[in-house]
Amino acid sequence: MKIMLLAYVLLVAIITSACAGSAGSQKGDAANKPPDSQGAKKDEGRSLELEVRIGQIAAEAKGRVGVAAVVLETSEAVSLNPRDHFPMQSVYKLPIAMAVLRQVDEGKLKLEQRVRVEKSDYLRQGQHSPIRDKNPKGVELSVAELVRYAVSESDGTASDVLLKLVGGAGAVSEYLKGIQVSELVVANSEREIGRDWETQYRNWASPEGATALLRALHERRGLSEQSQALLMKVLTESTPGPNRLKGLLPAGTAVAHKTGTSGTQGGTTAATNDIGLLTLPNGKHVALAVFVSDSPADLATREAVIAKIARAVWDAWGS
Question: 94: alpha, beta or left, given left = phi > 0 and alpha = psi -120 to 50?
Answer without folding.
Answer: alpha
